[in-house]
Write a structure and sequence with these properties.
Blueprint lengths: L1 E2 L2 E13 L4 E16 L11 H14 L6 E5 L2 E12 L13 E15 L15 E12 L5 E11 L2 E3 L2 E3 L1 H13 L2 H5 L10 H4 E9 L5 E10 L22
Parallel strand pairs: 1-4
Antiparallel strand pairs: 2-3, 3-6, 4-5, 5-6, 7-8, 8-12, 9-10, 11-12
């Protein structure tokens, strides 16, 4: 989206991390701008606001597409890929807000940059980290009364959608790729917790998956459950024996 006749009011930068500031996966610049819609050249009789409303409609239409992400250009300078947080067109009797000759607009824009994940996630590839809008992860391990280990790994992931550098960002596909990359790491990360007698997690375990997608807002939920049976031989079964004695006293 392109903004013209604008000037920047301020810029704020926020850094987003996995966990407690362990891995900086992106930084977000919030840019506040203010600009003018000058229709003096087309509204020569200074009657009505049709010309200004036409310019306003063009801004609104550009900001109302299905794609959340878009390239941001201010006064001919590209600022990267981002999204419009707010867009306002104040109107009053003031000379610069009457929308007959000159109108005013203000906007808040977020610009996304990749962070520094080098040496932070042990070879886990994160697709488009700058467009990862929210992320949470939970892992639990428990030992049942039948000596079966259960590992539960759950992920909540939401990506922004749109185009960046000519590439379309599919939030569902990107989330699935990240989930697969993280799930592939879970056996090796927790293998030291399981006694050697249970065998290799990668070989002896049973795996169950569940996935939920919200195609409206792009949010996703993934869960992986690993059951490790106490066979210790790499075979996907365990044996449970029970005895029951019935005695007739009559």
């Amino acid at each position: 989206m392109e903004f013209t006749n604008a000037y920047i009011l301020g810029i704020q930068r926020r850094s987003d991390y996995f966990g407690e500031r362990t891995a900086n996966y992106r930084s977000v610049d919030t840019i506040s701008i203010e600009g003018y819609i000058d229709v003096r050249a087309t509204n020569t009789d200074y009657k009505g606001v049709r010309q200004a409303l036409s310019e306003i409609d063009s801004y609104v239409n550009s900001a109302s597409t299905e794609d959340v992400l878009d390239s941001i250009v201010i006064n001919g300078t590209g600022f990267g890929t981002g999204k419009i947080i707010s867009l306002d067109f104040p109107a009053s009797t003031a000379v610069d807000e009457d929308q007959i000759r000159i109108g005013k607009y203000s906007a808040d824009i977020e610009i996304y940059h990749s962070g520094n994940l080098r040496d932070s996630l042990e070879n886990v590839s994160v697709p488009y980290p700058q467009f990862l809008d929210s992320f949470s992860e939970d892992f639990a391990i428990s030992l049942g009364k039948e000596n079966t280990y259960t590992l539960d790994h759950s992920l909540d992931i939401a990506y922004l959608s749109g185009k960046a550098g000519g590439v379309s960002i599919d939030p569902i596909s990107s989330a699935k790729t990240l989930a697969k990359n993280l799930f592939d790491q879970s056996p090796t990360q927790f293998s030291t917790v399981i006694p050697d007698s249970y065998g290799s997690i990668n070989v002896a375990s049973r795996e169950y998956f569940n996935e939920t997608y919200n195609i409206v807002d792009g949010s996703t939920t993934f869960s992986k459950k690993i059951s490790l049976l106490p066979s210790g031989s790499g075979m996907n079964y365990s044996l449970k024996l029970s005895n029951k004695i019935l005695k007739n006293l009559l």
